Amino acid sequence: MGWRGILGFDYGIVQAPLGPDISGPELVAAIANSGAIGILRAPDWESPDYLRELIRKTKALTNKPFGVGIVLAFPHKENLKCVLEEKVAVLQLYWGQVTKDVVFEAHRAGVKVVPQIGSVEEAKSAADAGVDAIIVQGHEAGGHVIGQEALTALVPRVVDIVGSKGIPVIAAGGIVDERGYVAALALGAQGVCLGTRFLATEESYAHPEYKKKLVEMSKTEYTNVYGRARWPGAPHRVLKTPFFLKWRNLPDDENEANQPVIGHSMIHGMEKEIRRFAGTVPNKTATGDIESMVMYAGEGVGLIEDILPAAEVVKRLVEGAQTLIQQRFTSV
């Protein structure tokens, strides 16, 4: 079953690379040490020396394999080179076409390639490129959402296409507990990828107020209000905070570029201004008007009741899925 592992890991559980720096070395190492797949998020600008430092900090905290996620919509050539030189276990790619050349270079370095896709067409292209697994993101997912289809409709279609090629499918979008895990396995996935649930962990680098909102709030909305200038054409799912509800109908010609600065943050070693409507979530270093900053979350956020250690999240997923299948779906 899916909890028995994929890609050489103990369990079929993947922590989504949480941007811009929320999935740092502490979170990734904790997940790796628990037997699941932890993924660092590379900077959205070329910074190979800093990325190398992140990777080595993580290696100092775990002797288990882990991955690095790169968003192809931003400059990434040097960062990609760094990932391959450091020979991390997994290269996760998103928001761009995965080419055969990239897969070839990664495989030559001993790195597995796992893209995240949001459509059948993307899945076919990734499979043709020779990837090692595919994360299928449903419309329910938090953060930037690349597709329009629900997970329950998209996963089986992708499984039907790539299953015969031996490519594991990993389901992502709205999954936070063992019930979502088992449902994904029933759809044909061999693993699950969780973002919001791992965002709400002790090791996550998210601001405490952001984590608090993930526990307190239960409603999200798919929108394009945030980060229009920096990442155009990248819709996202966010918490329905009071600030968002006030500005949810922001005119299409408005964006963060000419808005007032509402805070500051250190992101991947660089001091950054955070403007109103920016697509930057508050990390631990963020100061200013935190409640007016974007807070991404998937539709499963209403099932999150507490902030847990990352290893406890993995343990509950694995043991809960095993118990659920044995008690509810196994013939006596």
From TrEMBL:
Q: Which InterPro entries match?
A: Aldolase_TIM, NMO
Q: Does the keyword S-adenosyl-L-methionine apply?
A: no
Name the keywords, alphabetized. Answer: Flavoprotein, FMN, Oxidoreductase
> CDD domains from the entry?
NPD_like
* Database matches in Gene3D superfamilies: Aldolase class I (3.20.20.70)
Q: Name one GO molecular function term.
A: nitronate monooxygenase activity
Q: Name one Pfam family in it.
A: NMO
Q: What is this protein called?
A: Nitronate monooxygenase
Please give the organism. Ambrosia artemisiifolia (Common ragweed)
